[in-house]
Design goal:
By secondary structure, this protein is an all-alpha fold. It is 60% helix and 3% strand. Strands 1-2 form a two-stranded antiparallel ribbon. The protein starts with a helix and ends in a 5-residue tail after the last helix.
Length: 214
């Protein structure tokens, strides 16, 4: 008997390849209800998820894979390792983790609450601005926290993202406005940026780990 999850994954990959080659036209959503995968599936099955519109579920599955990799990279680090800086101009692993949580928080405010970038209230800025901006102030203040602290920050914002994604549809994820370089930018691009931004910093984190004092 064929594994349904494997069959769904192969169908998704096949459809994606054919679409890229211009050999098939998918429905406006890109996927049918039958293509959706269960949340218990492997993180390596990128595609729609139950409880989400097709495009949002696919995006969230990508974000989930990246977040799983990130947490797996830093979960066992000590406070000293999280605070380590390569030099006086570099950011610690801990600061970058809080920075990633802050980035997701601010994109929530921009896309879910439709707030212009930076217009959130002072209470929000007090909690998240230092980590968002990094730099000297972050190097001074973001220290002494264990891995569970940073994982808690990441989980806190991701829970909101998942809840809000479930309320929205593919028309919303494709909605655009002038944003990056004042160019038309849709919500899909903004949230893909949250994911690739995390990938970028995970690469930096892995580089730092190779240079930790023995």
């Amino acid at each position: 008997m064929k594994d349904p999850a494997t069959s769904d994954r192969r169908k998704f990959i096949k459809n994606t390849a054919l679409l890229g080659a211009g050999l098939v036209t998918l429905p406006a959503t890109g996927f049918s209800q039958g293509d959706k995968m269960n949340e218990d599936d492997s993180i390596y099955l990128i595609g729609p998820r139950e409880g989400y519109s097709p495009q949002i579920g696919t995006l969230l599955s990508t974000m989930t894979m990246m977040r799983t990799w990130l947490i797996g990279t830093i979960r066992e680090l000590s406070v000293e390792q999280l605070d380590f800086q390569l030099d006086e101009q570099s950011n610690s692993i801990g600061a970058m983790l809080w920075h990633l949580a802050a980035t997701e928080k601010y994109y929530q405010l921009n896309t879910f609450d439709e707030m212009k970038w930076g217009t959130w209230d002072d209470a929000v800025k007090k909690e998240w601005d230092v980590a968002s901006h990094l730099g000297d102030k972050a190097r001074e203040l973001i220290r002494g926290n264990d891995a569970d602290f940073y994982i808690g920050k990441l989980n806190e914002v991701r829970a909101v993202t998942e809840k809000e994604f479930a309320k929205r549809d593919d028309a919303w994820i494709m909605k655009s406005e002038p944003f990056f370089d004042n160019q038309p930018t849709n919500n899909y691009c903004k949230w893909f940026h949250v994911c690739e931004h995390e990938s970028n910093h995970r690469g930096q984190i892995k580089m730092i780990l190779k240079r930790l004092p023995k």
